[in-house]
Amino acid sequence: MDRKKSLSTIRGYAVSARGKSLRQRTFKAPKLGEHDVRVSVTHCGVCHTDVSAIDDYYGITTYPFVPGHEIVGHVSAVGKAARGFKEGDRIGIGWQGRSCMKCEWCLSGQEHLCMDIVKAATWDPYGGFSSSVMADSRFAYHLPQAMRPEVAAVLLCGGISVYSPLRTYAKGSASKIGIVGVGGLGHLALQVAHAMGCEVTAISSSPEKKEEALGFGADHFIDSNDKDALRQVEFGFDLLLCTASGGVDWYALLETLKKKGKMILVGFPIIDLKPIDLVAHELSITGSFIGSRTTMKEMLKFAQAHGIKPKIELMPMSQVNKAIQRVKENKARYRIVLVN
């Protein structure tokens, strides 16, 4: 394919309707805006958010839909107002590819809370399971030179998702933190919390993950199916970071929090509980959504400095449906990155 044609079209793996497999299609490339960069995709991670969006779990998916938002590649075109980038630069893009830049949240430096966040996703109009994507250059990031592209891809979503709340709420060695779930997000959270100097406990329903969890940085491991073990840590944690997407015993977990403790959700689990302990112990449950541009840059430097690396399976982009199925079946260990 000649260069002119490659810039005018996109080859992407798209799903046409809920419940369908992805098939390769060719689309007309969106017009490059003045602040935009077009990026030839070399690597793209497969996130649980992609899998959920394919089936329109969030109620915002427009078909045909090309998923993918953990993107590393090389700049192939630069808008006239894009600053700091040139053709050939290796860059990364996470879930957020733009924002309105004018609402109160954007103006306060919290662009990830933009009032028009649905339209801010990198996969609008086409995501990273493709030959190229387009994003606002202000949401594209130069990567540490020594960082592997597959590592960077995962950190651009999974890394920022756990780094941002830990940066906000963890208090270093004074914090006793429970990481709920040892999976795609949890294994990164263990590394980040450990690097921040916290006392870290991995809480998982999969006891076979104990040795790996300790290797990722956990000081302790609790099998969440063991109610006696959970009772032994009642009022034990300052903070719980819940990375699990399901199978959570909310009552048992809340009892492990100190009074005025906090549980942070970084996934989208369904919560069903009576708020007795929540009120009586003055507990808080809050969400945390990716992070700002400033926090993203900080996270990339922190990860490189502390050797934080996801455990990754590499697969060719052509095996995207197989990769999605592995994520659905919880067989990925612990992230999958597709390679063009």
TrEMBL record:
> Which keywords describe this protein according to UniProt?
Metal-binding, Oxidoreductase, Zinc
Q: Report the CDD domains cross-referenced here.
A: CAD1 (cd05283)
Say which species the protein is native to. Answer: candidate division WOR_3 bacterium SM23_42
Cross-referenced InterPro entries, in alphabetical order?
A: ADH-like_C, ADH-like_N, ADH_Zn_CS, CAD-like, ER, GroES-like_sf, NAD(P)-bd_dom_sf
Which family does the record claim for this protein? Belongs to the zinc-containing alcohol dehydrogenase family.
The chain positions of domain Enoyl reductase (ER) read: 19-338
Would the keyword DNA repair turn up in this protein's UniProt record? no
- What cofactor does this one take? Zn(2+)
UniProt protein name: Enoyl reductase (ER) domain-containing protein
Any GO MF annotation of the entry: zinc ion binding
